[in-house]
Amino acid sequence: MATTADVRQELASLADPRRAQGLSRFLQMVPGGYGEGDRAIGVSVPEQRKVAARYWRDLSLADTAELLTSGVHEERLTSLFILVRKFAKGDEKERGQIFGVLLANTDRVNNWDLVDSSAPYIVGPWLIDKDRSVLDRLAGSDLVWDRRIAIMATFAFIRAGDFHWTFRLSERLLHDPHDLVHKAVGWMLREVGNRDRAAEEEFLAGRYRAMPRVMLRYAIEKFEPQRRKDYLSGGV
Predict the structure, then answer these.
(1) Which of 171, 167, 140 is nearest to 154 (CA)?
(2) For the chain, N or C: smaller number of CB within 10 Å?
(3) What DSSP assignment string belongs to 105-136?
(4) Share of the chain above pLDDT 90, in %
(5) How far is CA 190 from CA 4, 44, 138, 151, 197, in A?
(6) Can you give the pLDDT at residue 235?
(7) What does the DSSP assignment read for 132-180?
(8) How far apart are CA 149 and CA 144, in angstroms?
(9) How far apart are CA 81 and CA 67, in angstroms?
(10) pLDDT in tens, 89-118
(11) CA distances from residue 1 to 6, 32, 54, 125, 193 in whole angstroms, order as listed
């Protein structure tokens, strides 16, 4: 059986200090940044996915969960890639356990790339046919990552043609204080619009003027140029 030490050793062998510096800036692992206190070693995402593909079968769920508590960003992201693979291949019991691991460690899913690599592929799919009230709890959290997890989880519902929870949480998060939540809400509204433009515009009506600018820009990114101008000028 593989161990966390095996995964860590392979990731360390792929580390690139120059890439680590760039990643640290990109994900704001700097004083005052939203990723402050994190540490990157400079392993590319494609390389991490390859590592996850090699280890997901042999690394136990307990060891994968342990890897998620690492202080190294790439180790946590690789653990999430492994969890996503395990979830996709697991039975109902295993999927429930993986969902539980993720929800118990949202403080370690603490950057937008970590959230976006896991919430739409574990949290949302698990809740497709279940009580979704946990999303209300996450959306009300003081932790920005919980709030982003909540809205990003609805991507799974959107893919299934169900927009209710995207609109419900978008309404709740309309005046969120963090731009990473603004961007995620706008993105999910855009995804609704990609499937049902009328439904998105119905939601935007009466709300778009009050939206944070970045949320609106994300939401209308795929609209025709003149339609975008009309929204941005408040003339819809």
Answers:
(1) 167
(2) N
(3) TTTTS-SHHHHHTTIIIIIHHHHTTS--HHHH
(4) 98
(5) 38, 28, 22, 13, 9
(6) 86
(7) -HHHHHHHT-SSHHHHHHHHHHHHHHHHTT--HHHHHHHHHTTT-S-HH
(8) 9
(9) 11
(10) 999 999 999 999 999 999 999 999 999 999
(11) 10, 41, 12, 28, 45
Dihedral sign of CA atoms 155, 159, 165, 167 in order: positive
Q: Which among 117, 141, 111, 146 is positioned nearest to 35, based on CA atoms?
A: 111
What single-letter amino acid sits at 155?
F
Residue 11, both tokens: 């990731």
Residue type, 226: Q
Backbone φ/ψ region at 206: left (φ over 0), alpha (ψ -120 to 50), beta: left
Q: pTM for the complete prediction?
A: 0.96
Q: Concatenated DSSP letters for 47-104?
A: HHHHHHHHHTTTS-HHHHHHHTT-SBHHHHHHHHHHHHHHHHH--HHHHHHHHHHHHH
Q: Which residues pair with 39 in a beta bridge?
A: 72
Hey, what are 106's tokens? 């949202």
Bridge partners (DSSP) of residue 72 are: 39
